[in-house]
Write a structure and sequence with these properties.
The chain is of the alpha+beta class. The protein is built from nine helices and 44 strands. This is Interleukin-31 receptor subunit alpha.
Length: 690
């Protein structure tokens, strides 16, 4: 079979770098061979007078001692690749050593602040390069920054003055260089830090928090100061000096060497001027002056409206002013849950604009902040305008507490309590009332955040309902507890109407009874007395028989239970009549004679042996007509009748009949009864009439 040899790849792209005083390093391509390849590197130097050959298996090689070359010189490099199938040589390359010289990184000896804006930097190269013209690049940045600023310069004295710096600022500095003819820069030197000199302190931002005046007019005033927004720290402050005096007096008070950025004063109720300065080793700042108004002094009010809104990642505050001359504002913000305004207040000065922004990350989430803006005109501070804002709203911890009131047939009132601010975690923009009948469809109604109750209408009577209320914020809603109630079966109006009908009916019945029943009773008693007078009479009756007017019945007072008693007594009367008829039959058989007691339905019920004085009297009779009493008799008559002995000619047989009637059935009823004594000599027709 035929065999084709595979030669190694020809070395190309030869590149050489002269590391001053150390080595000459060359590289070529390809960097890797597919088979076993050996390289032979030949170098000539001293303008071709000397040569050096080395072998390697890699695609790079460094010529070390004794093959050391130094500029100025020109050398050549040739690479030969060889494997089992043959050899391949590269092209011969020529190198000017001044063009490929690379030095070690320089050393920064010192960074000295000359002023508040300049450093003097001393440095040197690691090699001895006094015969070379050097090109340098210096870079610097502040310690808290990642942005580098580079400066190029040519150096012969190995010293450089870096200017345009910021006072009292720490910088980080690094340096690199190359010879003027070389194309290779050294690596960056090790970083060196230095701080510029400080300045005289700048003027401060000054603010105050006014406390209420006591009974003596003395009030607490908390002074607060800090560097202006965006102003750099250009000095090392050693302390602060405070001066204050009443506005209409020259009595100056000084407080020196205050080390904190706040101080509490006790001032009287009159207006005061307060100034604060800071000082360092170079001097003191300008005075920051603020006027403290009198207790009852009216100050300017120029902010007409203000709003706060979120514009990720900022909280934005905007306001409108009615006084164009006011161009300085003081913004203060405070968590609403903070107990002491003196400890948690934050503030910031704003100029030339009518808006203010703050990063949301600098505020606590789900905390309501009171943000106030004060207009500042010269040294006078005006009335603030305050709004509330959340940097970030979150879900509420719980929903509203709910109850049901005024439950009717088809209506009910849902009432809920306002949720405390410390658990809202946002602004409540509305409430939604959900209600559902048992087994029915769910309904809802949304109301404004200031509404704390809602009237449900068009409900079904005698129906169970489920109700709950949801409080809605920008972060979502929180559902309150579910409550149940049942609508009424009958309304109050229906109860009143029914009661009126029943009461009216009873009233009409009472009126009808009062008009009709007493007349019937009087007629009955009158007829009964006529029967009694027809069967027996007394001498008085004979004498007064011509006086019909005296014999007429007269009406008497009617007891309250007369109607019931009349009905029951009438039934008892019929029973007595039947009993008396039976007695008459026995008397005819026995041929004896006895006293008869007939119960009148108009007589009050009195037990035996009790007085009749308590019995109500329905009618009055003539003084001489004791036998014609209709509704009662005196106690003497009752005793006389009960104690009258039986006649000797009466037969003893009726006695057992009387015992059979005991106990008297008429005494068992709590109904008024009356007894009549019927004489045995009364004609038979009179008895029958009774």
């Amino acid at each position: 079979c035929d065999f084709t040899p595979v030669l190694p790849a020809k070395p190309e792209n030869i590149s050489c770098v002269l590391y001053f005083g150390r080595s000459l390093t060359c590289t070529w391509s390809p960097e890797e061979e597919t088979g076993d390849t050996n390289y032979t590197v030949r170098m000539t130097y001293s303008f071709g007078k000397s040569s050096c050959t080395n072998h390697t298996t890699k695609a790079s090689h460094s010529f070390l001692r004794p093959c050391i070359v130094l500029p100025p010189d020109i050398c050549t490099v040739e690479v030969e690749a060889q494997n089992g199938d043959g050899k391949v040589k590269s092209d011969i390359t020529s190198w000017n050593l001044d063009h490929i010289l690379k030095t070690e990184p320089p050393i920064i000896l010192s960074v000295n602040p000359i002023s508040n804006q300049m450093f003097q930097i001393w440095w040197k190269p690691l090699e001895r390069l006094r015969l070379y013209h050097l090109r340098c690049t210096l870079r610097f940045r502040t310690v808290n920054s990642t942005h580098w600023t580079e400066v190029d310069f040519e150096d012969h004295d190995l010293v450089y003055n870096l200017t345009g710096l910021r006072a009292f600022t720490e910088y980080v500095i690094a340096l690199r260089f190359r010879t003027s003819e070389s194309r290779f820069w050294s690596n960056w030197s090790k970083e060196k830090t230095g701080m510029t000199m400080e300045e005289v302190p700048h003027i401060l931002d000054l603010w105050r928090v006014l406390g209420p005046a006591d009974v003596n007019g003395v009030r607490k005033v908390l002074l607060l100061w800090k560097k202006a927004k965006g102003a750099p720290v250009l000095e090392r402050t050693l302390g602060y000096n405070i001066q204050y005096f009443p506005e209409n007096s020259t009595n100056l008070t000084e407080i020196n060497n205050v080390t904190k950025q706040r101080y509490e004063l006790l001032l009287t109720g009159q207006a005061h001027c307060v100034s604060v300065t800071s000082f360092n080793s170079l001097g003191k700042s300008q005075e920051a002056i603020l006027r403290i108004p009198a207790v009852h002094e009216e100050t300017i009010q120029c902010i007409e409206s203000m709003q706060a809104y979120l514009a990720e990642p900022l909280l934005v505050l905007e306001w409108e002013s009615s006084i164009p001359e006011v161009d300085t504002w003081m913004v203060e913000w405070l968590p609403e849950t903070t107990e002491s305004k003196f400890s948690a207040l934050s503030w910031e000065s704003v100029s030339q604009v009518t808006n203010w922004t703050i990063e949301q990350e600098k505020l606590q989430p789900s905390i309501c902040y009171n943000i106030s803006v004060y207009p500042v005109l010269g040294q006078q501070v005006g009335q603030p305008y305050t709004v509330q804002a959340y940097a970030k709203e979150e879900g509420m911890l719980r929903g509203p507490e709910t109850r049901v009131e005024n439950i009717g047939l088809k209506t009910a009132t849902i009432v809920w309590q306002e949720i405390p601010k410390n658990i809202r975690n946002g602004f409540i923009n509305s409430y939604t009332v959900f209600y559902q009948a048992e087994g029915g469809k769910e309904f809802s109604k949304t109301v404004n955040s200031h509404v704390l109750q809602y009237d449900l209408e068009s409900l079904t009577r005698r129906t169970s309902y489920t109700v709950w209320v949801v409080a809605n914020t920008g972060a979502g809603g929180a559902r309150g507890e579910t409550i149940n109630f049942r609508t009424s079966s009958i309304s109050v109006l229906e109860i009143i109407l029914l009661t009126s009908l029943v009461g009216g009916g009873l009233l009409l019945l009472s009126i009808f009874t009062g008009l009709c029943v007493p007349n019937l009773m009087i007629q009955f008693c009158h007829v009964h007395d006529l029967h009694d007078s027809g069967g027996r009479s007394s001498p008085k009756e004979s004498e007064n028989s011509g006086n019909t007017e005296d014999r007429a019945l007269k009406p008497c007072s009617v007891p309250a239970d007369l109607i019931d008693k009349l009905v029951v007594n009438f039934e008892n009367f019929l029973e007595v009549v039947c009993t008396e008829e039976a007695k008459k039959g026995q008397e005819s058989i026995l041929g004896g004679e006895t006293n008869e007691y007939v119960t009148s339905p108009s007589r009050p019920d009195c037990p035996l042996g009790e007085s009749f004085k308590e019995s109500p009297v329905l009618t009055e009779v003539a003084p001489g007509d004791i036998h014609n009493q209709c509704l009662g008799m005196t106690e003497e008559t009752y005793t006389e009748f009960n104690e009258q002995p039986l006649s000797s000619d009466h037969s003893p047989e009726p006695e057992p009949l009387c015992e059979e009637q005991a106990p008297n059935p008429y005494l068992k009823n709590s109904v008024t009864t009356r007894e009549f004594l019927v004489h045995g000599n009364i004609p038979e027709h009179s008895k029958r009439e009774i």
